[in-house]
Amino acid sequence: MNSRSNNGKISIFDSLNQDLGLYFLELARLGSSKAPAEMEEDEEEDPKELNTINSSGGFLVVTPDKLSVKYTSVSLHGHDVGVVQANKPAPVKRLLYYFEIYVKDAGVKGQIAIGFTNEGFKMRRQPGWEVNSCGYHGDDGLLYRGRGKGDDFGPTYTTGDTVGGGINYASQEFFFTKNGAIVGTVCKEKEMKGRLFPSIAVHSQNEEVHVNFGQKKFAFDLKGYETQERLKQQMTIEKISLPSNISYGLVRSYLLHYGYEDTLNSFDLAGKSTIPPIYIAQENGFDERDIVYALNQRKTLRQLIRNGEIDAAISKLRDWYPQIVQDDKSATCFLLHCQKFIELVRVGALEDAVKYGRIELAKFFGMAGFDDLVQDCVALLAYERPQESSVGYLLEESQRDVVADTVNAMILSTNPNMKDMQGCLKSYFERLLRQLTACCLERRSANGDQGEAFHLHRVLSSGRDMKC
After folding, report:
1. Residues 401-414: b if buried by 16+ CB within 10 A, e if exposed
2. Torsion of Cα atoms, 54 then 56 then 59 then 65, to 10°
3. What stretches of 146-275 show up as alpha helix (H) in DSSP?
4. Where are the beta strands (DSSP E) in 246-346?
5. pTM of the prediction?
6. What is the pLDDT of residues 55-83, one digit of tens each?
């Protein structure tokens, strides 16, 4: 196939070849930083101590470890409150946040409170008495939310009690506990703006409280509560009725897209053996004609690449789809050459790797978009145990998959009947998961970017653990 049209312009296939190849080239490049990528989003600094700078210090004393507070004055007015916040706001990119206090001494009146306040909160007011705050008070058991009048909520608490306060970001609720048991929950009002700080207050002489930000075991079973909340979410999902042929079709489309022909045949056989048998109707939206294309050849090439037989894969491509490898400086050829180099390093054939690199990889030195991966490949030679090095990601099975997926997509792109070129990149199933991720992100955005980020492996692991 001629790579250029008669007027010298790059053909449609070459343009597509370049776009698809660069897409997978970026995936290969991401391999070097993929390990921390998922967790970075969820990393936030937890509160660890009380903030002694921003507090009503004239009425209370904070111990040197910044984990205990005592009201040492005599309260003469309603605003003579000793309030102190945590040194950091409650982290938001998770399902739950929680902390506890232990009432060592309820003092003269037992006017202790636990709750959450925002950064600009007036530090001589009880949590819940001002806007952007919420507090559960020990002397009357009332819950205060942004105004001076409290609502009936739970029991009072006093000397010897352990009381906790938390935020459920999935349900957008505050919850409070007493001595390891849930007292109640209340809706976290959308009007509460900004970051919320775990807060405690003391308001009468000799009141003394210890705070636990997780440095020791909670009285409340937080892990058990989290499991219950995840189970609620899972049960809500499982109540949604989904015809078996829809889920069957999604799995089948995935196997077809990636050329897993043997697994597909076994899957189809199992589907026909069920009672009643599962059949896919065309009106379900699955059009398999595009992804059935060259199924056997795609299977063969995937197996070769995943087995590290790169020379054999390149030979097959030259026989079956010469247009894919005719440009030896394309991203697809580059990834194949890199993988060949990697396989030589894997088996310890370092001299052969050096020779191969001088011939096939040298041409990509200094080329924008290629140079960094070339350097990573060459760097494998510098380590006695390269799999344990910073470039060890190149020796992982996932790197072979990137190359196999590249070749798979390039073959699908040669189908003259392919209607949707995005279909070369991802299966229907993966596109559905992308839409699910987008919906979860949109929902989190509506909650002020609070709550867990959507990670598929976490959802699957959570569902599996609950069924065990």
Report:
1. bbbbbbbbbbbbbb
2. -20
3. 222-238, 244-257, 261-273
4. none
5. 0.69
6. 666 678 899 999 999 998 776 566 689 89
